[in-house]
Amino acid sequence: MRTQYIARQREAHGRKAVAVLPVHYPKEILTALDLLAVELWGPPGAPRGEAAGRLQTYVCSLVRNALAFLAAGKADAVEGVLFPHTCDSIQGLATLATDFGGWGKRAFVFQHPRGPPRPSSRAFVEAEMRSLAAELEPFAGRALEPARLAAAIRLHREVDEARAALLDGRARLPMDDVALYALLRRGEWLWPGDHLAELRAARATLREGPVQPGVPLLVTGYVPEPAGLLQTLGAAGAYVAGDDYAAVGRRVVRGGPERPGDPWAELVERYWAAPPCSTRSADQGQRMRYLSGLLERSGARGVVVHVLKFCEPELFDVPAIRAAFAAKGVPLLYLEGELEAELAGQTVTRIEAFVEMLGTAGRAA
Amino acid sequence: MILRRLQYEMAGRVVGPVVLALEEWQRRQRRRGKKPKESPLGPPLECTRKLKELMSLHYLQGRYADGAVPVAWVTSGFPVEILRPLGFHVVYPENHAAMCGVVRMVTRLSDAVEKEGYSRDLCSYARTDLGSVATGETPAGRLPRPDLLACCTNICQTVLYWYRALAERLKVPLVLVDTPFVYGESKPHHLAYVRDQLAELVEAAERVAGRKVDPAELSEATRLAKEGTRLWAACLATGKHRPAPWTGIDGFFHMAPIVALRGTEECNAYYRILRDELEDRARRGIGGIREERHRLLWDNLPIWFATREISTLLAERGFNFVCTSYTNAWAEAGMRTDPADPIGSAAVAYTHIILNQDLRNRMGILSRLAREYQADGAVLHSDRSCKPYSIGQVDLKERLARELGIRVLLLEADHNDPRAYASEQGENRLTAFMESFG
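Above: the input entities. Below: the structure tokens describing the complete assembly.
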């Protein structure tokens, strides 16, 4: 489906496609240059192809799968790859695939400033964004005019606003998690305008009052894979009321100051206005406050921490998350996965037991 | 404060040397009359005793450092020269974690933080260090409480998460020098970013130390660090002799001063003595192992808890690690520093650390080392705890074998956690590897 969509975008609009590794990147720049971003989150399942053995098994499955996928020519529909420096492993993948084989077409990198916002990192973000744009311009075959960048930022603001409305109004949305996440995650490869149309249609179905019957949960993690997790939650009688997935909720920028006439400044502001994310080395205290707020806003009765094995940015935050919710007396379920295609039976049982426990506690209250 | 400072100075200048001299005397008494054990290794380096003295004094003095002088905990790739003129006593948690690894404390310390929710999949240095802070257990007796945590991402992003956890636990400020990764050549705005951060670092360190950096002292610290780098490089270069006068494993231990005391005269004085001893051994044909038949390159961190077993196993069959990419890292980047421009040159030097550069650069370094040291084989330690060093090793193995015609082994282990290393399996793999040389 994605391959056909990419081909249609090229035929109908002349848009080149760029595969993008997780997590954060200035998508507005790609949109402004008429480049279609197609994100590469694995894909799930065991790594396949000759390159599957080029990375040790203690490297996260997302990176192993991505290398195998790229090297097997599965991403040949795109004409370039963008590697945001999310973690040591994706940084390693960027040099491995481009220097030692696995990706022969154009490669771009976007380096995040690590650590808290400081004068130096604020200046660096803008310089890095401009540097990326300068490299993408000849690839896209067009210059990045400020007006186009401003228009792209407006479009992405609207996308974020619609995504926020669906996530924040989750209890009032007559849609199960599987359908909702399929919709939200289509934003990983659809042209933002096409995605916005779908989001608006879903937003129009929001009700006045709650319609979700199950146990509300807060889920924090990297990426909602396998999709069977959402299905299992639903079948057990729960739904995701608060989303803190790096792939979803942590990329929804709410508000952020507008800077008419200075799109670069606005882009930088949007960068810093995103929710705190471990992969951008957010301050832990700030992140715990954000998660506590999300728990309260969403009315979640329990927390699921859904971590990708070997993901250092996420794993380093787990003790703080455990401690923060333990202090509030909020039950927490810790799940660790490796981008399996299917959820293991043992995990299904743990989810069912957790939801049952919350349901019983809720009825008793 | 004055009393504390007095204790600190006394520990370093009087008590420490006396205690260490007494320990040495006792050790000699115990050994008197005993025949030295048969070993496939060469005669021990005289300098090893001096190394022990130097590092013991550093840690002993450190016990009295907090409250006497400003204390900083820093990462191994941090531009420490900037802290020297401000009188910081500097502690290296990585070096300390390695000490814990050598004395096999890691499992206990790691368990302590795994109970808090830290995954065993995280770096074992980080778990060791956090466990030491959580339990107060350390082979150093006591570590001084830091006034400042100083972290540089040129070795990995992990250190940022690790130091952030330390900052949260110890409630002390954290300064960060973030070095963008280098593909080919670094971009001007990347170096500008690092320079800007170094300026921010100077301000933060001055606030903690309560005084300003004297430019002349900063220049002198940079000169000393550069000189120390040159001396360390000279020590390593003696490994080019046949037989090599020491082993790569010796190098892992003797690198402690260039990591922990870089930018001090004590560090340089030590390496002058070590260099002289190594050159003397080379002249006299004294090898790091008794009979050197094959010369190997080691890539990645050591396996701290198994260094002796591995070096002995190899030495028994005439194999010596004559060079290692890890120890070499401290002989390279520092060469780019310039006392005339301490900040600007530090930005360049500390951005161009081996782990902060692409795999083409890494391949170049490994190839050069293998050629210059005439290695006929290489062991790439696939280190479960160090992703930046280990990603790409499968390809490096193939390329080294193909381009240099040498035998290469990928050995899976962990630099500090013995639970991630099967010693029997490792021994079998090393033995089979050695047998392949015929």
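Note for the figure: Residues 2-435 of chain B form one domain.
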